Amino acid sequence: MTEKPIGSVLVIGGGISGMQSAIDLAESGFYVYLADQSASIGGMMSKLNKTFPTNDCAM
């Protein structure tokens, strides 16, 4: 029998890594709070036009 996690987690930083960490923790059963210093999330990714290696649009 597996036990469900108890508690909540604060993820600081709303970049790609912070968002992926928040998703993984939420899927594990934790309540997640995501905090970022700016008004929008995305970090440096939101400033890019194209992504490597597929050259897809980042926006």
SSE inventory with pairings:
Elements: E1 8-12, H1 16-27, E2 31-35
Parallel strand pairs: 1-2
Overview of this structure, please?
The protein is α+β, with helices and mostly antiparallel strands. It has a domain at 8-40. 20% of the residues lie in helices and 17% in strands. The protein is built from one helix and two strands. A two-stranded parallel sheet has the order 1-2. Strand 1 (8-12), helix 1 and strand 2 (31-35) form a beta-alpha-beta unit. It is elongated and about 40 Å long. The model has no long low-confidence stretch (mean pLDDT 84).
Order of helices and strands: EHE
| Counted beta strands | 2
Strand fraction band?
Answer: 15-25%
Describe the largest sheet: 2 strands, parallel
Q: What distance separates the N and C termini?
A: 43 Å
The rounded Rg comes to: 15 Å
Number of helices: 1
Low-confidence stretches: none
Helix-strand makeup class: alpha+beta
Mean pLDDT: 84
Provide the helix percentage: 10-25%
Compose a concise summary of this entry.
With about 60 residues, the protein is of the alpha+beta class. Helix content is about 20%, strand content about 15%. It is built from one helix and two strands; from the N terminus they run βαβ.
